[in-house]
Amino acid sequence: MNEEAPLLRRRTATSESQISNSRLYLAVFSAVLGNFSFGYSLVYSSPVLSKFKSPDADPLLRMDTNQAAWFGSIYSLGAAAGGLGAMLLNDLIGRKMSIMMSALPSAAGYTLMGGAVNLWMLHVGRFLTGVAGGMTAASIPVYISEISHKKVRGALGSCPQITAVFGTLTLYALGLVVPWRWLAVAGSVPAVLMVVLLVFMPSSPRRLLSLGQEQKAEKALRWLRGSNYNTNIELSAIKHSINTQVKITWSQLAMPIYYRPILISVGMRFLQQMTGITPILVYLEPIFAKSNVSLEPRYAAAIVGVVRLFSVAVAASLMDRAGRKALLYTSSMLMFLSSLTLTMISHTTPCPAVNITTLNHSLHAEMGSTLQASQGTAVSLIPLISTVVFIFGYAMGWGPITWLLMSEVLPLVARGVASGLCVTVSWVTAFALTHAFTHLVDIYGLYVPYLMFTVVCVFCLLFNAVCIPETRKRSLEEIENYFRTGRTFTIRQNHPSVLTS
After folding, report:
1. pLDDT tens digit string along 331-384?
2. I need a surface site. Which of 132, 153, 361, 383 has the fewest CB within 10 A?
3. How confident is the model at residue 31 (pLDDT cuts 50, 70, 90)?
4. Which of 437, 167, 133 is nearest to 305 (CA)?
5. CA 268 – CA 422 distance, rounded (Å)
6. Other C-beta atoms within 10 Å of 461: how many?
7. Rounded to two decimals, what is the model's pTM?
């Protein structure tokens, strides 16, 4: 018998109909407050850099171009360190505790920036908030994946990205009216609230079973699924998955079940950053100022934040309908077209002044100035529109889906360490790119960075076509078996325990 139905679907149909998701949603909300703080802290530099570079800035806090580049990029270096820390903490103290631990560097970093009287306090504070961001980026997607069931995993898997985007939008909005020191104070609030709520949330049932704590795992799963849910089938599936795994060794990394999903996850995180999303977000207001956008840069940045939030919400609604790969194709194409437009616009020299021959010199001057003004206004909106399309495309695919797929395809036996590795690679790439971006713009203008981002978008299309599997409506066990059998595309059921394509 050869049928398309995912493994265990028939056996779990009855119990799944009795699932109550309310407490699951509460647990996810509690965790993703860390992503809110991450999104907020990531773009903290965007509205405040202009104040630090201003001649009116405090002499002890004034920044030149190189110092501004470090302030913008050192966050990514901290995030890389946080990812490395999460590699150890995820398996040492568990996902939930790792998320809670991220509040310590977050609170310390915001305190330093809010009370800064020297440049080193700003840079160290920025670095510490980056450490917290790296920890949450490595831990929260895995925690959500392990407490969710497959019917809602796609939508809930996009929640980290949605809340990170909402945190970014909040920063842009507050930046319009709130002084930079109070922006730092406000940033510490979500981290504190996250810790308070997570105290009452359960640990991952998979984590508890791996420690041999079956009663706690059953209690946690029943809390997450509701009192009427039959936990036996799901617990048995998780136990079977854990019992059939052994501790991974370096020699075993040569096996497809391990190296393929790890390479796919690392490749996705590398390409995600190489699209230029981090330097664009970190330097959004300075970029708009350099592009001569007709709107004030701070208002243009707020518009981008609103569009980004809308597009991530759209992606969440389509995640389990259109599938991961379809959204990634759409995302790559939108990013390619918009970055290509930005490349051409940034390389185009201004048009010469309009020369209209007429007997009435005053009429000629009036018409010429009107045409130039309308032409200038239209052209000045193209960078904003193209950036909005770029952000829309990224937020529909390569933003949330990369996080989700990382938590889905990584082998369970190495998920904690591998997710930390992915986040570390991602943020080291972001640091190098964000730091180099400022210097590239100073030397070549925006043309060279945008051209590089355009080329990367082509590689994103190819990588999605060749390397990324479709995981929509697949259980974590099915996805792992997909890599174990070495199949390339569709996972099908020929036998209760064997999957073939």
Report:
1. 999 999 999 999 998 876 444 444 444 435 544 445 444 444 444 555 678 888
2. 361
3. very high
4. 167
5. 9
6. 16
7. 0.75
Nearest-angstrom CA–CA distance, 455 and 22: 44
Give 370's Cβ-side CA count (13 Å radius).
7
Q: Strand, coil or helix: what is 438?
A: helix
Helix extents (H) in 445-494: 447-466, 476-485
Q: Would you state the pLDDT for residue 151?
A: 79
Mean pLDDT of 242-270: 77
The secondary structure of 259-299 as a DSSP string is: HHHHHHHHHHHHHHHHTTHHHHHHTHHHHHHHTT-SS-HHH
Mean of the pLDDT values across residues 385-397? 88
C-alpha closest to that of 338 among 377, 384, 271: 384
Query: pLDDT exceeding 70 applies to what percent of the chain?
Result: 81
Q: Residue 72 is which amino acid?
A: G
Q: What phi, psi does 495 have (nearest 5°)? A: -150, 150
DSSP state of 3: B
Are 39 and 163 contacting, i.e. CB atoms less than 8 angstroms apart?
Answer: yes
What end-to-end distance do the CA atoms of the chain give, in Å? 13
Strand-pairing partners, residue 495, are 498
- Output the DSSP codes for 136-156: HHHHHHHHHHHHS-HHHHHHH
Beta-strand (E) ranges in 285-380?
none
Count of Cβ atoms closer than 10 Å to residue 58 Cβ: 12
CA distance 221 to 215: 10
Q: Find tokens 């709520």 and name the residue.
A: 197
The identity of residue 246, as a single letter, is V
The helix (run of H) or strand (run of E) holding residue 492 is strand 492-495
How confident is the model over 105-116, as pLDDT tens digits? 999 999 999 999
Using DSSP's 3-state secondary structure scheme, residue 157 falls into: helix
Q: Own/partner pairs for 480-485, CB < 8 Å, 24+ apart?
A: 480/241, 480/257, 480/411, 480/412, 481/7, 483/256, 483/257, 483/260, 483/261, 483/409, 483/411, 484/256, 484/257
Q: Are 428 and 310 in contact (CB under 8 A)?
A: no
**Helix, strand, coil percent content, the chain, rounded in steps of 5:** 75, 0, 20
Q: What six digits make up the tokens of 405?
A: 């797929």
